[in-house]
Amino acid sequence: MGSEVVIVDEIPFPKEITITKPLALLGHGITDIEVHFLQIKFTAIGVYLDSVVVNHLEQWKGKTGNELAKDDDFFTALISAPVEKLVRIVVIKEIKGAQYGVQIESALRDRLAADDKYEEEEEEALEKIVDFFQSKYLKKQSVITYHFPATSTTAEVNH
């Protein structure tokens, strides 16, 4: 991990992580959930990509962050780019793994269904995620990583 960090809700994220090659922190933020009208910060997230990803995103050069945030084609191109990617999630508010898995399943299923991409293969993949987290307990500061090698469409999940 690099010596420089970005602080996301008191959680440090290194500006660079090396798995097989250096990956740059290209995005970060938090997730929150509403419980009885209160917004509770849940996780801090850092998204790391091989910097050559910019070669796959030339058509969006010059666009603002707000424009990119609303552009589904940009996200599709970013996700499908054949480069190494890593998502690092740090737990802010402890939660049972089973609850976390169900929240991921629900959010992803809804997004995939809205894009008409939720079929048997996606359902099976989501079941694997739920099963993975079923017996886990995610304490504050727990780290979850989703690693996507450049040559694979499957993520490696670590907790």
Please, could you describe this protein's structure?
The protein has helices at 65-69, 72-80, 97-114, 120-133; strands spanning 5-8, 11-14, 16-18, 22-35, 38-49, 85-91, 95-96, 137-138, 143-148, 156-158. It has 159 residues and is of the alpha+beta class. The protein folds into two domains: 1-88 and 148-159, no CATH class; 95-138, no CATH class. It has a six-stranded antiparallel β-sheet, with no helix packed on it. It has a two-stranded antiparallel ribbon with strand order 1-2. It has a two-stranded antiparallel sheet with strand order 7-8. A hairpin with a 3-residue loop joins β3 (16-18) and β4 (22-35). α3 (97-114) packs antiparallel against α4. The mean pLDDT is 89.
In whole angstroms, how far apart are the ends? 17 Å
Strand numbers in spatial order across the main sheet: 3-4-5-6-9-10
How many domains make up the coordinates?
A: 2
Figure out the total of helices.
Answer: 4
- Shape annotation: globular
How many strands appear in the DSSP assignment? 10
Order of helices and strands: EEEEEHHEEHHEEE
Q: Which residue ranges are poorly predicted, with pLDDT under 50 across at least 5 consecutive positions?
A: none
Proportion of helical residues: 25-40%
Secondary-structure-based class equals alpha+beta
Mean pLDDT: 89
Radius of gyration: 16 Å
Strand content: 35-45%
| Biggest β-sheet description | 6 strands, antiparallel
